[in-house]
């Protein structure tokens, strides 16, 4: 309707203009002037008259047209709006203030209407946004906990420190399954960059040149290697990065992806490029290198900057994967070998420890090898045999190289054992060893004592040899002993032999002790008789009995020869009875 | 910002790459010529109060220019056809090259650059020949030197101006 209105106005103005130079209304002066006027303006006058006729005709036509009904306007309005939007966006611009004012008025008068109208759209959007924000927060929290305290996180922190990258980026890169890092929206014909979005990655290359080069590479590959005109280059793979290329009539969509993206992502790219193609249909028609209109496609492209994280290591893992089986076999082998090695080491350690605790054995060195063990040290011949002990620890004797040097141990136990072995004491003697002193308890022949004393002086570890007997005990013991005779005889009865032996040993012992004490022992053997005979007879028989005992003692213990022994017959002046007693005297 | 794709044409050794290097700071090395046959550079500048982003497609120099991939030419808004002032044969081939380009691109703005204008003593193209070319074809000719930089920037600026006008 507007153009029509403008037309009418123009026509009306034209009629005004037509009337202004109406020369017929000028005052008449002369016929020459009229003639002159006719000559000069006749053509214009004709045209004016013609225009006047046309104006009147249009006026009458307009008057005859009835006012457009609402029905007719509603019929043409949708088509007119569509046509207008195709040509330019003047309609949107011109109606924008009206629409804005309408909305403002509507909200001012009754906000409820707009709220209710928008709720179905805004409600889910808000819920989705909140859910996504919460999800991201929980994921972030989980990751923070997961990666904050593990050994892996320490490794990653070290890497972040070394490379100068933020820790978060290192974590993302390590846990990234894929990430769409950059998207280039390229004008297909010219190779010019229309839009470029990145996912916060360092992009050192110039996006304009990259997009031009991508186009060139596309063409190069297509011309060089592809026979079919429909064939296209869809993927470029460079190390961890892949470039996925999608295309539509006017666009190239190149996405730089790190990692392995699922194919579903490609579908999303295709949807995005189709959407952009549709929305910018008119922009492509008049494209002269101006990328400004494509700024609107930015949100669509940014929505394509997807990524997915997860534990790369746990992905695709199955219990019986070859890697797992090999790992398990390896682990089992390590365990078995480790068990045997550990057991052997444990046995060896116990063996060595045992030897170290044994008396008479000094371990100077020991070595546990893979196949052979070795041990060396000193060993007293009286100590336990290390080779025999090996068996107690389930070690193989052949696998142990033993080197033992003999030595004389001064260990009390060994010293005593050695003393017992060398001195060979009679059963009546009990040997003990304490603080370097070898003590012989009990009784034995004076010869044994004599010999034991001599040998002990050269025994390793023995400082002194002692006996538990003392002189006064021995003296009283001897003096309390009696040798009985059958009356009226001087023959030594058979049953007194043992008695004589005991007395003799005691005497011999006392003799040794006296000698040590630098004393002189005098033994007086006193024979007695009963009262039945005469005094002379009794004196004689008692002396003979004493001499008999003295002879028997010396015969049994020849060393007593060196002792001063005197045999006397007391008759009945001393003890009464057919017997012999002893009297001992120790002099300094 | 307006973006324009322009191409550099001319026989091998006429100094196309040197002219581009004189005009921009390249980031891609010359090996791209050998590998994929084209090296692309970028220059942002302003012509007639209009910011322009010029994408320069510099092709591998070949004596037989028909070997340039036609797909590389697609979408170019203009071009520079470079002739070596000291090699007459490059002047002769310029005509066939121009014809080939026009077949591919249609009528788009271009300039003829007589390069190496600093080597005055070695000129092998006479002024008469140049005048005849101008008169016969109506081509616009600029005498440039990549060595001294003479009229290099002017060549690119003028082409851009023509492209903007053409659009």
Protein architecture, described:
The complex is a heterodimer of chains A (588) and B (167). With 588 residues, chain A is an alpha+beta fold. Chain A contains 18 helices and 16 strands. Chain A has helices at 2-19, 31-64, 70-87, 90-109, 111-148, 151-163, 167-175, 207-225, 263-279, 281-285, 298-303, 322-357, 386-392, 412-423, 446-456, 471-479, 497-516, 535-556, and strands at 176-187, 193-198, 235-238, 241-247, 251-259, 307-309, 361-368, 373-379, 400-406, 429-434, 437-442, 464-467, 483-484, 520-527, 564-569, 579-587. In chain A, the strands form four sheets. In chain A, strands 1, 2, 3, 4, 5 and 6 form a six-stranded antiparallel beta sheet that branches. The longest helix of chain A is centred in the first third of the chain and has 38 residues, at 111-148. Chain A is rod-shaped, with a radius of gyration of 68 Å. Mean pLDDT of chain A is 82; it is low at 1-23. Chain B is of the alpha/beta class and 167 residues long. Chain B has a six-stranded mixed beta sheet, with helices on both faces. Chain B is built from six helices and six strands. The radius of gyration of chain B is 15 Å and the shape is globular. The model of chain B has no long low-confidence stretch (mean pLDDT 86). Classes of the chains: A alpha+beta (588), B alpha/beta (167). Chains A and B meet through α8 of A and β1, β2 and β3 of B.
Assembly state (oligomeric): heterodimer
The number of distinct helices of chain B, counting runs of at least 4 residues, comes to 6
- Please give the count of helices of chain A: 18
Amount of helix of chain A: 40-55%
Q: What's the N-to-C terminus distance of chain A?
A: 168 Å
Radius of gyration of chain A: 68 Å
Q: Tell me the span between the first and last alpha carbons of chain B.
A: 14 Å
Gross morphology of chain B: globular
Order of helices and strands of chain B: EHHEEHEHEHEH
Helix/strand structural class of chain B: alpha/beta
Total beta strands of chain B: 6
Please mark out the parts of chain A with pLDDT under 50 across 5 or more consecutive residues, or reply none.
1-23
Indicate the proportion of strand residues of chain A. Answer: 15-25%
**Helix-and-strand structural type of chain A:** alpha+beta
Let me know the average pLDDT of chain A.
Answer: 82
Rg from alpha-carbon coordinates of chain B: 15 Å
The portion of residues assigned to helices of chain B is 25-40%
Silhouette of chain A: rod-shaped
Task: Give the strand order of the largest sheet of chain B, numbering strands 1, 2, ... along the chain.
Answer: 2-3-1-4-5-6
Strand content of chain B: 25-35%
